[in-house]
Write a structure and sequence with these properties.
With about 150 residues, the protein is α+β, with helices and mostly antiparallel strands. It has a single domain, classed as HIT-like (HIT family, subunit A). Helix content is about 35%, strand content about 15%. Strands 1-2-3-5-4 form a five-stranded antiparallel beta sheet, covered by helices on one side.
Length: about 150
């Protein structure tokens, strides 16, 4: 289902101009209009899914394979030393349509790790509590999907 006001759905439908670099039956990739660096590409599934959590499992493989293809292409095209691959789910997601950022990187390019301050665990006990909570949730989700 495509919301009436989704900019990325408009690009995918060719109703809005974009610098498309790749498209197939499952996805469309285009240059980011506000790139971190030249060559910054956004990959979107053709169907409207708001976040990665909404993407149906049968598209996981094709979308990840296309991400790999684009990362290789971006690195070669702009002579980058590597890429930064990122997905925002809700927070910092400017357009509520799943999109994967493929950003070319070079050593000393000015980006310092992640774009937000790091928050350490209070102690090993706090770290273990979070690890246990995540492990429990994984088990619960796996049981639900059986």
């Amino acid at each position: 289902m495509e919301p009436d006001s989704c900019i990325f759905c408009e690009i995918i439908a060719n109703d809005r101009p974009a610098y498309i670099v790749y498209q197939d039956a499952n996805s469309v990739a285009f240059l980011d209009s506000h790139p971190l660096f030249p060559g910054h590409v956004l990959l979107c599934p053709r169907a409207h899914y708001e976040t990665l959590l909404d993407l149906p499992p049968h598209l996981n493989g094709p979308i990840l394979s296309t991400t790999q293809l684009l990362a290789r292409a971006v690195e070669a095209a702009v002579d980058a030393e590597g890429t930064f691959i990122a997905v925002n789910n809700h927070v910092s997601q400017t357009v509520p349509h799943l999109h994967i950022h493929i950003v070319p990187r070079r050593r000393r390019d000015g980006l310092k790790g992640f774009f937000w301050p790091r928050q350490n665990y209070k102690d090993d006990e706090a770290k273990e509590a979070v690890r246990n909570a995540i492990e429990r949730e994984i088990g619960k989700l796996q049981r639900e999907n059986q």
